[in-house]
Amino acid sequence: MGSLKLILRCVLVPLVACGVRTSVRLGYLLAAALRRIQFERALVTGLGTLVLCTGIARANEADDLAMKRRQQGILTGMPFMANIAPRTFVDDSGRKLYFAKAPRRVLSLAPSLTEMLFAIGLDEQIVGVTNFCNYPPAAAGKPKVGYTQPNLESLLALSPDMVAAPGELLRADVLAKLEALKVPTFIFEAKSLEHVLAHIHTLGRIFERSSAADALTRHMRERIAEVSRRVQTVERKRVLYVLSSHPLITVGPNSYIHQMIELAGGINVAGGTSGAYPRLSMETVLEKDPEILVFPVGSTESVPEHEQQTWKRWTGLSAVQRHRLHVVSSDALNRPGPRVVDGLEQLAQVIHPEAFTSDHPPSSRP
User: Fold this and answer.
1) Structural domain span for residue 309
2) Nearest Cα residue to 108 out of 161, 50, 64
């Protein structure tokens, strides 16, 4: 009886670890041996079973790993390479992308993303940009593929390993077509200043440029901290950021520019609205009585001068009475990219010029 227990302990337990089909086949052999009370043969059979099961398990693990890598190679368009561990990244829409190695050809569908890619040293890898990508100057020489409705034929001809796209502007049908064509598309959507910094880090990891990304965001954080230090003791001012006058469109609490206004020492008069870019009535504006009006002006997005002048007829507004109508760079503020800190500094200076006197110059830039 003791020998039987020993066999059960040494033989049957390993059998459980094997696959069902293997366990049944070897179990029959063991049962036959036990019926003839040939304990020694049963023990040998059991030990052989253990060795065989171990080999089968290892072979199955190797097959599973190989299949997983092949699947990941298909998803990314990368060749199957058994000796490279794949990397997984999750974009702002919750989609997972798998890259066995850093993409060598990237196409950008937003000026802000183009600026990020250049800022971390990917000049040579950028194979295409939008019609509005004009910074840095080298971006002007890159092939153009359109903007919210990119030319897919031109895009595919550039053979990108990855497309960097803005979630708030990329049309759903365009994304569906890119997915159907097996073009890896990574979505970026900046709803806060922290998102901008996180996007730079993400691109740094995807393209194995983490050192450059870390250096860039560290300097950006230093400049943000400097602005916060300068305005921390000043009286906050009511601000209306005018994206359009007809209809009147501004920035709401779901926009990163709302956060920028607060960091610059202002109070967004549209802070109680919903959405990123709400519409306001003039009745609401008169009730909130902004002390400062801010108009973004730039190469691609601008509030025209004649439109700015029409605000002067609203003589009941504190901003008009105090002549506090100011312009800032839309290229810096309206693009959630590396130059967003330039925009923050400009915004803080028009809201609180007293905090940026010659005795206390802004922090130096690289």
Assistant:
1) 215-355
2) 161
